[in-house]
Amino acid sequence: MPQGTVFLRRQRNQRRLTLEMLSAKVGMSQQHLSEIESGKRDPRLSSIERMAEAEMWE
Question: What is the Cα–Cα distance from 58 to 30, expressed in whole angstroms?
């Protein structure tokens, strides 16, 4: 699993966010987020920005 995907999952888990909760915060489907976290899909810069704006990490 790529390091970036490990980082994303760790950040989500540290904030005790489920995929469902994060999905609602960033406006992406749970499926899309799951694929990013599992390394099946590379996130676009806009996706990373949306996660940052949703205060997924500090």
Answer: 22
